[in-house]
# Entry
Amino acid sequence: MSFLSVSKVSKAFGGNTVVDAVDLNVERGTFFALLGPSGCGKTTLLRMIAGFETPDSGTISIDGEVMNTVPPHQRPTNMVFQSYAIFPHLNVFDNIAYGLRKLRLPREELRRRVETMLATVRLEGLGGRAADQLSGGQRQRVALARALVREPKVLLLDEPLGALDKRLRDAMQIELRTIQRKVGITFLLVTHDQEEALSLSDRVAVMSGGRILQVASPRELYERPNCREVADFIGEINFFHATVKEMTDSGVTVNAGLLGIVTLPRANVAPGIAAGDTIALAIRPEHVRIGREGVAGEIVTRTFLGERSHFHVKIAGRTEPVAVSGQPPSGKDATLAFPPENLIALPADQT
Amino acid sequence: MADSGRNLRQGYALLSPTLGVVGLALAAPMALLLLTSLKTQTGTGFESGWTLAQYGEVLGRDSYRILFARSLAIAGLVTLLTVALAYPMAYFVAFHTRRKFLWLIVLTIPFWTSYLLRVFAWKIILGYGGVINSGLLGLGLIGEPLSFLLYNPFSVVVTLAHAWAAFAILPIYVSLEKIDRSLLEAASDLGDGALRRFARITLPLSMPGVIGAAILIFVPTTGDFVTPELVGGPAGAMIANIIEVQFSQVGNWPLGAALALVSMLMVAVIAGLFVAAARAAAKAIR
Amino acid sequence: MKSSRLLFGYALAYLAFLYVPVLVLPLFSLNNSAFIAFPLAGFTTRWYAGLADSALQHALVNSLKVGIATALISTLLGLTAARAVTRYRLRGANAALGVISLPLFIPDIVLGISLLLLLGTLGLPLSLASVVLGHLLICVPFSLTVLIARFEGFDRNLEEASADLGEDGWMTFWRVTLPLMLPGIVASLLLTFITSFDEFLVAYFLSGTEATLPVYIWSQLRFPARLPMVLALGTLILAVSVVLVIFAEKLRNQGVKKPVVGA
# Structure
């Protein structure tokens, strides 16, 4: 069994199923992200792991021990709350020392531990600072230190960077990753920010509507999404309608309308697709080629992003312009090519 | 959405002692009050049968009707006056002062002495040899003390408006203080002048405080017998004076119970109407 | 700003309206005449000597007992009920709050006489305990209002964070909930004590032979000869309250920084 194992866990609030028979396995020492839009059930899942909500069915176990009936204060987990939940009546030192009371450490040892932790989160010398005199970034660090000082088996982070501005968020991302490497504790991060999930984690689970759609490494998620929803949620992507003509061991031939008949490698086809299916053919903006051959179109918007640009090309027979990333041609006209090895075949939406 | 299971039981366990104490201490006496009002007094006890005679007496006699009408009119006037006088004061503290806490302390110091003595003080102010008469005499504006200042409905209204002022200032201040300042800026930004902004944003948002203050003042002033007895005289007597008499000296408890129930009902109905009207008004302004 | 100056003028006039009648009390308590009327007859402190009256001191002790008991019990009842309705989603919570707040809509005299009837029917003697019962009806809604306001600004995550950091329900209450609720609890204790200490109507009907201070004052107001002494008493109550509040304010400023609940 995995270090943290969630098995067939469901939770409903007032007849409304929020987490639906979720299975999740997290290995020891990984930085794992639960990624999904707001309301997808990721925070509820996290709170069930922490013990603040009770699963209606299924089991949660950590390091081989079933956690379902263990109250929050006895679980080997600690949490960084979205609001940080810094105790307003205690200073920084006492906030961090809060969870160490039970250990009945000698005074010196307590001080040493808290100060080591203050150094880890780079708040040296701020132990005496009152809770209401901390900046957003400092509050975040105190919340992190307070949880880490207990050396939990799993550290739970609920949108920990959500309240910070972009610059600080970027800096904290790097730091979170560094701290995780240093302490070696399993981190389980909940976020709606795909960039955050991809850049921080070893593995990412994408959640939607109470279910887990795909669990994979960031690169795999980006390059080989297993369904339209994941592809759409991770980065920008273009979709084309297509039907499967023929499937062989080496490749799949599809009729992609505007793009003609193309054959893509078998590895680019999501599981569950059969001949005759209507599918969605997807391609990332940076994989669209601009050249002389292909589909002609007209550039409608351009966004300059430094060394490359992002632009949208309107092509005949399609209402939505194609998103392209690269060096745009001067002038309005562009001819786009879609290399088959970069095309991904995904099941079309049921809708 | 309601909690379930263990949580639910904990919640009800926490709630029930308070609910039980207040509910019982309220329901049992009220039921007895109702039963008593259906009796007739004989000497020191009650006759055995049940009767509506007390209610016939209470609702039929002109003298009682006048007392009811006067009590409600006085309490209504006191409520209106107290709230109207306190509102600008609370507004000033909430929006135009820096040391709000100091102002609130200064405003409440006069209320830190006995209610009875605050009422009694007005007897000294308005009385024959009181502050106003001596002042006017001293200035030579009048030849002899004015006797009409005291012992009338007017003196009751002024005294009560003074005695209950804190109960208007504090709730109104709290509701004004709660108003998000950016709402006011938004109203100005959207073209409202100071007056229009006050009418459309500040006043409606402070309505909970105004309603709270009005109820805190109207209900107890209707049932006060201290003030009418000290500064009201015969012309300023209120319903509570008669109730008090039934329960102490003359001793007609059934009649007193009926009087109490009818006045309680009237107060409840008027307070309810007031809340409804204030809500409707707040809506209409928007 | 013109409106600001206008309001400031109004505020001064309003303060005069509040203060002038009350300042009459110390004025005449120091006046060397048994008659409460102008012109003043010279300075004396003899009325304050009259305060060494055993009936008065007995009444004062009674009022302190009733006030402290009322404050403690109603704050405790308010605390549990406020916790119940803010922490849990209970069916019928609003109806329960309505019942608990009902005394706010009932004139005190009606509360007084109906409790008098109840005690008479049950054959229980009038005592300070019956006064406390009446005062609880008046004070619990106040406690509840103050404490609900405090609990509503309370971040639930703080208690969860405490549980997450290893403390059970009881220790979480001691280490997080109670310290953060303290200002609300103190406010509730103060408000209910003052309300009970100054309450007359209910005490008048329920105190029997054990007069509280307001009941004692009421009995003295009938005797013109006792009036200057009563004014001295009122002045003293005022002075003690002012000193107490200034002292409390000093303490508040010196002590730990006032905790800010929530974000």
Chain A has a mean pLDDT of 89. The radius of gyration of chain A is 24 Å. Chain A touches chain C through 26 residues (CB under 8 Å).
